[in-house]
């Protein structure tokens, strides 16, 4: 299997006349931690969603040499932490964490065990029975990290995961995310418009007007 997990070739995504992502060629290799910076509206989320296989390109191509075809990406191999709240309100924390595993065909016992282990590894096992509405923003994002890591993905995308957190809470959440990504040996691509977040990562790409700069 290739060390290149995802590669784009002059990929663009348009919405009507608007060019959100404009002819980007890039690749992400196993073990990398990449931060994508850029102002609001520069195309960071669109690029991340393309890389995660959640959006289809308007032109150009994307392949996942080290993972498989688009159909094989989710929910185990490639996982995404979204910008806003993403927990399902009617489910408890542990049910939220177990859900992607159940959708992937795990039996209830093993899904529950993996969910409990993911919560414990993040030190939030005490939240297991809570409802999402009872959580603080920082706690909810930790649960979102646990949900992603329960499936031991190869490739983790995080779209401004700290965008709605104050700085100390954001820093703690990123510590948790970085440790968790290391623990499962995953590769991380994260977007942010916060310079202090970007400084944590050595590989920096920046976006402006749908174009990518700083790619080595
Ligand atoms: N689903 C969509 N429909 C129409 N326009 C969109 C959609 N998603 C993104 N855009 C537009 O594409 C551009 C890039 O958006 P986005 O990728 O969300 O940027 P960023 O994440 O850097 O803020 C923006 O002008 C945004 O309004
Ligand atoms: Mg965005």
From TrEMBL:
InterPro entries named in the record: AAA+_ATPase, ABC_transporter-like_ATP-bd, ABC_transporter-like_CS, ABC_transpr_LolD-like, P-loop_NTPase
Database matches in Pfam families: ABC_tran (PF00005)
A single MF term (Gene Ontology): transmembrane transporter activity
Keyword list, A-Z: ATP-binding, Nucleotide-binding
Gene Ontology cellular component terms for the protein in this record: plasma membrane
Span of domain ABC transporter: 6-215
Gene3D superfamilies: P-loop containing nucleotide triphosphate hydrolases
Domain of life, source organism: Bacteria
Full protein name: ABC transporter ATP-binding protein
